[in-house]
Amino acid sequence: MNCPRCNSSRTRVIDSRPADEGQTIRRRRECEECSFRFTTFERVAETPIVVVKKDGTREEFSRDKLLRGVVRSAEKRPISMEQMESLVADIARAIQKEGDNEIPSSKIGDYVMERLIDLDEVAYIRFASVYRQFTDVATFMNEVEKLQNKQLENDLSED
């Protein structure tokens, strides 16, 4: 593994531990040249999944791209990076378990929405506004009403 700071190949593992419920190995490394410490993640190489976008174009599924979208929707919200990474890992596992080589982008969006609504309502609305392409206030209000109804259902089931 090359050092991200000086590009030296002389790095050593300081610590290894399971992450992502045992699906990933997290390794702390140190460069023997510049002493820079960094983290790497190791996971099983999976069959590439192709995402079919709304316009019919196809691109390889990217956990990083999905995480960036979740991070954007959760900006300035009380959601830890660990929670967001866990959400993305759950979605990636669900996609892999389906066993298909292709998945519509709408299905990935649905997975995110299902998990984000329980994590943070504001992040959910932010994500929904991009995913559902809110074009007017009425569409936005419909989504807020769905959220309120879900919250009422949860409150009633707790009583």
From TrEMBL:
<keyword id="KW-0067">ATP-binding</keyword>
<dbReference type="GO" id="GO:0003677">
    <property type="term" value="F:DNA binding"/>
</dbReference>
<keyword id="KW-0805">Transcription regulation</keyword>
<dbReference type="GO" id="GO:0005524">
    <property type="term" value="F:ATP binding"/>
</dbReference>
<feature type="zinc finger region">
    <location>
        <begin position="3"/>
        <end position="34"/>
    </location>
</feature>
<keyword id="KW-0479">Metal-binding</keyword>
<comment type="similarity">
    <text>Belongs to the NrdR family.</text>
</comment>
<keyword id="KW-0547">Nucleotide-binding</keyword>
<dbReference type="Pfam" id="PF03477">
    <property type="entry name" value="ATP-cone"/>
</dbReference>
<keyword id="KW-0863">Zinc-finger</keyword>
<protein>
    <recommendedName>
        <fullName>Transcriptional repressor NrdR</fullName>
    </recommendedName>
</protein>
<keyword id="KW-0678">Repressor</keyword>
<keyword id="KW-0804">Transcription</keyword>
<dbReference type="InterPro" id="IPR003796">
    <property type="entry name" value="RNR_NrdR-like"/>
</dbReference>
<dbReference type="GO" id="GO:0008270">
    <property type="term" value="F:zinc ion binding"/>
</dbReference>
<feature type="domain" description="ATP-cone">
    <location>
        <begin position="49"/>
        <end position="139"/>
    </location>
</feature>
<dbReference type="InterPro" id="IPR005144">
    <property type="entry name" value="ATP-cone_dom"/>
</dbReference>
<comment type="function">
    <text>Negatively regulates transcription of bacterial ribonucleotide reductase nrd genes and operons by binding to NrdR-boxes.</text>
</comment>
<dbReference type="GO" id="GO:0045892">
    <property type="term" value="P:negative regulation of DNA-templated transcription"/>
</dbReference>
<dbReference type="Pfam" id="PF22811">
    <property type="entry name" value="Zn_ribbon_NrdR"/>
</dbReference>
<keyword id="KW-0862">Zinc</keyword>
<keyword id="KW-0238">DNA-binding</keyword>
<dbReference type="InterPro" id="IPR055173">
    <property type="entry name" value="NrdR-like_N"/>
</dbReference>
